[in-house]
Design goal:
Shape: globular
CATH class of the largest domain: Alpha Beta
Strand content: 15-25%
Helix content: 25-40%
Distance between the termini: 37 Å
Bound molecules: adenosine-5'-triphosphate, magnesium ion
């Protein structure tokens, strides 16, 4: 089967800093992948390279068999891969629906954008909260609202960069259940960055671990959590599970 995402030898440099070094992996369609690594490991940089915000200095990226490295972000979004932004909240002083409409209206006339936005909110179980102002949403609703906003580009692959960072473990479990349902129903491939180890190990079918820009482990959650290099990387950062 053609991988939905294939990354081959990707290197990204910022001046003298090698943020990603010769990273290679493949993702199967419909898989749920957890991407872990200490602060500064290169997780967000990898997401940015995948969606065209950083151009790799070396290597190749394919989406559904088609080379996409070097393409502009809007082209890659149209081909089916999009990411949420770490630390970028929904627009305040606006309803949840209008937030999602804003994303949908990028490629659709307003009427169709509103219909699609409602549909995206239904898909994450937020249909009833459509007319609520962002400031009045709970943290789990905000997290799922960000997912809904990303769904407005009709992605095949959705990259989630710490959307659950503000949640308690119980709230995370509920959001994780919704993400799984979304994958099961829509067949969307999910790549999830989250520092909370219990949540990421529970949701993911496979884990990729980055450290100092290098892919140090790949395997099932059980395999990766006892990988000596992963254990060492996290022992250097004892607060990783709550960062
Ligand atoms: N635009 C940039 N210019 C220069 N250096 C950058 C830039 N973006 C990231 N870096 C550096 O690249 C490295 C990887 O950063 P990145 O944000 O990808 O890490 P991360 O794994 O997402 O970390 P965190 O868990 O804290 O979000 C870090 O050393 C960071 O300082
Ligand atoms: Mg990051």
């Amino acid at each position: 089967m053609t991988p939905i995402v294939e990354v081959a030898g990707v290197t990204v440099r910022f001046g003298g800093l090698v943020a990603l070094s010769d990273v290679s992996f493949a993702v199967r369609p419909g898989e749920i992948i957890g991407l872990i690594g200490p602060n500064g490991a290169g997780k967000t940089t990898l997401f940015s390279a995948l969606v065209g915000l950083n151009r790799p200095d070396a290597g190749a990226i394919a989406l559904d068999g088609q080379r996409i490295d070097g393409l502009r972000p809007h082209r890659i979004a149209r081909l089916g891969m999009t990411k949420t932004f770490q630390n970028t909240a929904l627009f305040p002083a606006m309803t949840l629906l209008d937030n999602v409409v804003t994303a949908a209206a990028v490629r659709l006339p307003l009427g169709a954008a509103r219909a699609l936005a409602r549909d995206c909110l239904e898909k994450v179980g937020l249909g009833a909260a459509a007319d609520t102002d962002i400031d009045d949403l709970t943290f789990p609703q905000k997290a799922l609202g960000e997912v809904a906003r990303s769904l407005a580009t009709a992605p095949k692959v959705l990259l989630l960069d710490e959307v659950m960072a503000a949640l308690t473990p119980n709230e995370m479990d509920a959001v994780v259940a919704t993400l799984r349902e979304l994958r099961d129903r829509e067949g969307i491939t999910l790549v999830i960055v989250e520092h909370h180890m219990r949540a990421i190990m529970r949701i993911s079918e496979r884990i990729l671990a980055l450290n100092f820009g290098q892919l140090i482990a790949s395997g099932t959650p059980a395999e990766v959590s006892r990988d000596p290099q992963v254990v060492t990387a996290y022992l250097g950062q004892p607060d990783a599970s709550h960062a």
